[in-house]
């Protein structure tokens, strides 16, 4: 998800408006993060699932509204990936705290975030704002966001838990693999961007 911070670098018309409906929805999603983290750590699983579901609905709605009614804004492009990242991070912390997901799974996801962060910082040091978001990165995020509520349900000792467990881990494994595959693709993109910049007439030379 770190790569999404570069989404504002995409071409297209974006505004500087703050009070738009998509931005309000993104702000509401951010406000729900501490509620969700408290709910999952304190074992209020019903509330955690409701907040997570509302987050998914508003995530889809704010993007759809922004694109349909031409309400894209720089604030929205910044808030939306931040909200995604915070929900995923808080879910990982909560599920690891309760022993629902193993520590190695958390480490692998955080290691990928660290790789992307280093990559983006290096690009910024070379004068590049960020990388365009591609389908694989989006697919990885969606898989993980589907996996977490199912893994939470899988903790139940009934038929619902038995059904949710294999489906949840299926989404989790696909999300993890796609997450790292997306990082490789972003690395290739970064090399292409830097190579194009170096060969551009009048481009500054590295010292």
SSE arrangement:
Blueprint lengths: L20 H21 L3 H24 L5 H24 L5 H23 L9 H20 L4 H40 L9
Percentage of residues in helical conformation: over 70%
What would the principal axes of the Cα set say about the shape? globular
Strand content: under 5%
Radius of gyration: 19 Å
- Individual helix count: 6
Largest sheet: none
Poorly predicted regions are: 4-11
Structural class per helix/strand content? mainly alpha
Give the distance, in angstroms, between the N- and C-terminal Cα atoms: 31 Å
Helices and strands, in order, run as HHHHHH
Mean pLDDT: 82
The counted number of beta strands is 0
Protein architecture, described:
The chain is mainly alpha-helical and 207 residues long. It contains 6 helices and no strands. The chain has helices at 21-41, 45-68, 74-97, 103-125, 135-154, 159-198.
Short description:
The protein has 207 residues and is mainly alpha-helical. It is built from 6 helices and no strands.
Sum up the structure in keywords.
207 residues, mainly alpha
């Amino acid at each position: 998800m770190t790569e999404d911070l570069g989404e504002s670098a995409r071409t297209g018309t974006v505004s500087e408006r703050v009070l738009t409906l998509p931005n309000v929805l993104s702000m509401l999603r951010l406000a729900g993060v501490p509620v969700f983290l408290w709910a999952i750590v304190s074992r209020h699983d019903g509330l955690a699932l409701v907040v997570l579901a509302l987050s998914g609905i508003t995530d889809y709605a704010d993007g759809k509204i922004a694109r349909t009614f031409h309400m894209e804004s720089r604030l929205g492009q910044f808030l939306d990936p931040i909200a995604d990242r915070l929900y995923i991070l808080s879910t990982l912390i909560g599920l690891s705290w309760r022993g629902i997901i193993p520590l190695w799974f958390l480490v692998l996801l955080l290691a990928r975030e660290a790789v992307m962060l280093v990559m983006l910082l290096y690009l910024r040091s070379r004068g590049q704002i960020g990388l365009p978001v591609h389908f694989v990165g989006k697919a990885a995020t969606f898989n993980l966001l589907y996996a977490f509520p199912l893994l939470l349900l899988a903790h139940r000792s009934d038929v619902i838990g038995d059904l949710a467990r294999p489906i949840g881990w299926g989404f989790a494994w696909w999300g993890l693999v796609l997450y790292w595959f997306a990082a490789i693709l972003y690395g290739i993109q970064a090399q292409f961007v830097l190579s194009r910049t170096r060969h551009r007439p009048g481009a500054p030379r590295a010292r």
